[in-house]
Amino acid sequence: MSNVALMTITVLDTYTDMTRILRATPAQRPELLRAMLESVRGLYRYFPGEVDLVEQHQQAAGFPIDRDEQQCLDALETLAHADAWNRMQRALDDALAVQLAATPDLHAPDITVLFVLGDPSDSHFMDVALGMTGMGGISGYIVITLWPSPENLARLEATVVHELNHNLRYSPGGIVWDPTTVTVGEQVVSEGLADAFARHRYGDELGYARIGVPHLANDQVFAKVVSGLDVTGMQNFAAWVHGDVIAERFGATPVGLPTGAGYAVGNRLVDAYLEATGQQAPQVLHTPSSEIIATALRALG
Predict the structure, then answer these.
(1) Which residues are in the DUF2268 domain (predicted)?
(2) CA–CA distance from 177 to each of 122, 186, 199, 232 (Å)?
């Protein structure tokens, strides 16, 4: 029996945990939050030194534990009413089945999914990131931080499936992500592939990552990002992929790009590759980014 048959995806019941945290006394909340986050400590296995999970949560615009309690509790009820946790579990299970049908030799570890409410008072998270961030590139773990706006609620399935695509691309036996040699082109392509997979499942209206949509047809943005595809070193990626405003938030150097530029360009490159080769998104999970870029740029002239 292959390891694939034993693979499971578990969306943790963070509704119960977050409700308990927000209803606890302020003094109790840090340790309760730390206990909830312990399930994804392995996500930070490549970080230097010991990671403070509560501090990491706060830096990533996770829900506050010193204010806005009622607003956050109300948002949790909105998510519960929308059946968010079950919807994501079904979407992940269905997407995995689709991916396995296209790549039956896929081997990947079990995946733990942590769904966390975001910080409604963080203007960068709410206005620039549009109330959603995802982290799925570390094999075995997915973290979604989200504020339940109508737009984000409608895209729950597409959002988590996007992150699943990242997780499976970089699982053992797939594409190797070496922080010192990986290129901007790899991350740009990976965002395009993840969006293409989400669009394959849910259509263009829901499948695009929202931050990249305004720039899909912008030829100047396309040319600028293409000029940086060979840049190496993860510390240089933020501006090329996420844009200057997000890069500056994390202390990175801006390069003259709008928010979500790399997502928009990744979609154009991947779409050109799929059209040129006659393939669909699930079939190209592990296709090297260099091949996708070369074929796409030839096709686009």
Answers:
(1) 106-293
(2) 31, 9, 24, 12
Residue 107 scores a pLDDT above 90:
no
Q: How far apart are CA 30 and CA 211, in angstroms?
A: 31
pTM flag (> 0.85): yes
pLDDT band at 211 (very low <50, low <70, confident <90, very high): very high
